[in-house]
Design goal:
CATH superfamily: Cytochrome c-like domain
Distance between the termini: 55 Å
Radius of gyration: 19 Å
Order of helices and strands: HHHHHHH
Number of strands: 0
Number of helices: 7
Oligomer: single chain
CATH class: Mainly Alpha
Structural class: mainly alpha
Strand content: under 5%
CATH topology: Cytochrome Bc1 Complex, Chain D, domain 2
Largest sheet: none
Bound molecules: heme C
CATH architecture: Orthogonal Bundle
Number of domains: 1
Amino acid sequence: MKVLQSRSFCSYINFFLFSLLLAVTANTQAVELTPRESHAYIQICAYCHARAETSAPVMGDIADWQRRAARVEGGFEGLVRNTIVGVGNMPPLGTCGYCTESEIRNLVATMSGLDSSVLNLAPSSDASKADE
Ligand code: HEC
């Protein structure tokens, strides 16, 4: 009985540590995508941004994204603006006709892996409005 008790205490501690780890990892991630945003990424953005041969910056290639953010006026916000109006070979909204501005912002944050402080600039509230 004693053994059992100490075992469950151990798993409680493990669970606690695991949750802590999740919380810490979640904090370092740029943004958590809503189902609509994930869908947009998979169906639309990834068509170009997961394939290096399209000349689109590839998701997770942080050095490339940092270079772009440093080059464009307004840094991260400049990348969001360029996505909305279109840039180079990318059509406006990255062809995501139904994406709202805040959804584009979350997608760019996730794809680029740039600073999680963008979360503070991006209340994702109008994403839920768009669902109405
Ligand atoms: C048809 C292909 C295509 C699709 C679809 C696409 N992109 Fe792009 N994207 C590109 C290309 C090509 C570039 C590089 C443009 C350049 O620098 O000339 C680019 C660049 C970007 C940039 C960097 C802009 C800059 O100023 O350097 C961002 C951010 C971006 N895309 C976000 C998105 C998002 C978000 C989506 C999905 C909603 C998306 N893209 C869908 C092709 C695409």
